[in-house]
Amino acid sequence: MSVKKKFKGLSDKAVGWLFIGPTVLLLLAINIYPLVYAIKMSFTNFYANKIGREPQFVGLKNYIKVLNKEAIWEKMQVTASFMFWTLLLQAIIGLGLALLLNRKFKGNELLTTLIVLPMMLSPAVVGVFWTYLYNPQVGLFNYVVNFFYDLGSFDMIGSSTLAPWAIVIVDTWMWTPFTMLICLAGLRSVPNYLYEAAEVDRASKWQQFIYITLPSVLPFLLLALLFRGIENFKMFDMVVELTSGGPGSATELASINLKREAFEKWKTGYSSAFAVILFVTIFGFGNVYVKVMNKIKER
Amino acid sequence: MDTSRSYLEPSSFSKKMAAAIIIVYAVITLIPISWMVMTSFKNVDSAISYPPEVLFEPSLEGYVNLFTNRSRQSQEYLDSLPAPENWYEELVRSREMVITGPSKFLGRYSNSMIIGFGSTFASVFLGALAAYAFSRFRVPLKDDLLFFILSTRMFPPIAVAVPIFIMYRKLGLGDTHLGMIILYTVVNLSLAVWLLKGFMDEIPKEYEEAAMIDGYSRLQAFFKVVLPQAMTGIAATAIFCMIFSWNEYAFAVLLTQFNAQTAPPFIPTIIGEGGLDWPAIGAGTTLFLLPVMIFTIILRKHLLRGITFGAVRK
C-alpha cells in the first residue's frame, strides 16, 4: 500500500468516492426519497390532486382500512394464483427446453436466439397484440383452438373464468425463455467428471438425471423463479393492456388496483399504505425464499 | 471451457429428437410475432376476416394509417379535389377519406429513441464508474451498499410513481425528456452496476497497475486501459438498459402526456373507425419491435452471456 503515493493524480480514496458518489446520490434522490415519502404519506389522508390542502396525520388508519378491505384480499388471491401458474408452467417448460437444448445439436444457437425473442418485446405492446389474437370473432388463437377442438365461440378476455388463463398464457409465452436460459447456464456448469464417474459406477441415465443433473440445476431454476416471482408480483403493463384488470376484477392484480387507487381516485395516503404493505410482503417472501434457496444450495 | 462429453456425448437419435421438439416449439412461439408483422401488411378488411387469412394481397394501408391522421369525406367533396399527388393519398382517397396531417407516431418514436439512448448512455457510464470502484477499492460497507443498490429494483414502479410525480412537478421535470432520462437511468443503474462489476472483476489488476507505473494517473488508466478492456461487458449491459428503456410502460404512461411520451403508451391508442385499426397497430408494433429484434439477433452472443452472467457467477 505504500506504493500508492508514487502515482500521480487523485488518491484512490478520492477516485473511489468520485466514482461511487453519483450512483449513490441518484439512487437516494430517485429511489429512496420517494420511498420514504410514500411511507410518510401512508400515515396521512393526503390527496395528491388537492394541492392546497394540508395533509393530516391519521396514524394507522390507512393500514387498518387496507387490511380490512375484502376486495384487497381478492386482489391478493388473483395475484397469488397468477404467480403460481406462471411460475409452475415456466419452471416445467423452461427446464424441459433447457435439457433439450443442452444436447448441442446443429443450429442450436440460432434456435435459442429465436426462442428468446418474445422476452425482448415490450410487455405493453405484447398485451395489445394479444387482444387481437384472442378476439372472439377474428382472433387467430380462437381459430387454432377451434381447428383442433371445436369449442364454438369463446372469449378469452371477456369471460371471467377464461381471462385469468389468458394472462397466464401470455406471460408464459413471453417469459419461459428466461427460465430456460438460466437453467441452460446451470446445465453447462455441471462438470463432466461427475457424469464420467457415474458411468464408471454403472449408474443408469435416469439415475444420473436424478442424482447429478437435477440437484445441480435446481439452484439456478430457483434463482430464475425468484426473479420471475418478483417481476410477476409487480406485474402491471402487459395485463393492463390485455384485460385492464377485467372483466369485473377477474384479472385485477395488486399493482393494477394500486394504480387505480393512486392515479384514478388519487387517494395518495391510502394507496401509499397499500404500496408499503405490498413492498413488505415481497421483501419478506423474498428474504425467506433466498434463505431456503441457500439451504438447498448448501446441501 | 471445454464442455464436450467425450464418450458421454448424447446419441445421434436423441439429438435429432431434441432438435425436432425445439424446432416445433420455436415455430409455435414465433407465430404471434409473425402474425403481427403479417397483419401490418394487410388492409383493414382482410385483417378482420374469418377464418384468418394466411395468404392475402399485401397492402401498405396499415403503415399509411399509422403515420397520418385522416377524416372521412363525402364523394362529392372528394370529386371536387385535384387528383391525388402520390400513392398514399390515392390509397386514403379510395377509402373515401383525406389526409388531415401527420400522426403523433413519429414524435413518440423519436422520444423513445432520445430517452432510450440518453438513459442507456448515462446508466452505463455511471454504472461502469461505480462498478470499477466496487471491484478495485476497499469501500466501507461494500456488501451492504451493493445489496442496497440491488434492492432498489424490488420496488413496484407504481409505489414510487406518486412521490416521483409530485417531486417532478415541483422541479419542473414532469413530462420532460430530461426527467424521463434521469428516471430510466436510475432504474437501470442497479442492474448496470451488478453486471459490470462482474466484468470488471475479470480484468486483471496488473493491466492498469502497469499503466500507472508508466506514469498514468488512476483516472487515465481507467479511461485508457480498463474501459477498452471491458467493452464486451459494456455492450451487454448497454443492450439490457436499452431494451428496458425502450419497452418501459408504467412510468411513461403515469408521468408523461404530451411532450415526452414514448411509443409503448401510444401504440394501444391507435383507433380506426369502429374499433382498433389492426393493420396500423400491427405496423406500429412491427416498427417498434424491429430494432430490438435486429439487436437481439446481431448481438446474441453478448446478450445470452449477459442474461446468464449473474446466475453463473453465484
Features:
heterodimer; A: 299 residues; mainly alpha; MetI-like fold; 12 helices; globular; B: 314 residues; two-stranded antiparallel ribbon; 16 helices; 70% helix; disordered N terminus
Low-confidence stretches of chain A: none
CATH superfamily of the domain at 106-269 in chain B: MetI-like
Radius of gyration of chain A: 25 Å
Kindly report the name of the CATH homologous superfamily of chain A.
MetI-like
Structural class of chain A: mainly alpha
Report strand order across the widest sheet of chain B.
1-2
Largest interface: A-B, 102 and 105 residues
General shape of chain A: globular
* CATH architecture level-2 label of chain A: Orthogonal Bundle
Q: What's the total helix number of chain B?
A: 16
Mean of all residue-level pLDDT scores of chain B: 83
Classify the secondary structure makeup of chain B into a structural class. mainly alpha
Q: Enumerate how many helices of chain A there are, as a single number.
A: 12
Largest sheet of chain B: 2 strands, antiparallel
CATH structural class of chain A: Mainly Alpha
How many domains of chain A, as an integer?
1
Number of strand elements of chain A: 0
Into which percent range does the helicity of residues of chain B fall?
Answer: over 70%
Could you characterize the architecture of this molecule?
The complex is a heterodimer of chains A (299) and B (314). Chain A is mostly helical and 299 residues long. Chain A has a single domain, classed as Orthogonal Bundle (MetI-like fold), CATH 1.10.3720.10. Chain A has helices at residues 12-41, 61-68, 70-101, 108-116, 123-133, 140-148, 163-188, 192-200, 205-233, 237-242, 254-263, 268-298. The model of chain A has no long low-confidence stretch (mean pLDDT 86). Chain B is mainly alpha-helical. Chain B has a domain at 106-269: Orthogonal Bundle (MetI-like fold), CATH 1.10.3720.10. Chain B starts with 11 loop residues before the first helix and ends with a helix. The model of chain B is unreliable at 1-6 (pLDDT under 50). Chain B is globular and about 85 Å long. Chains A and B meet through α1, α3, α4, α5 and α7 of A and α1, α6, α7, α8 and α9 of B.
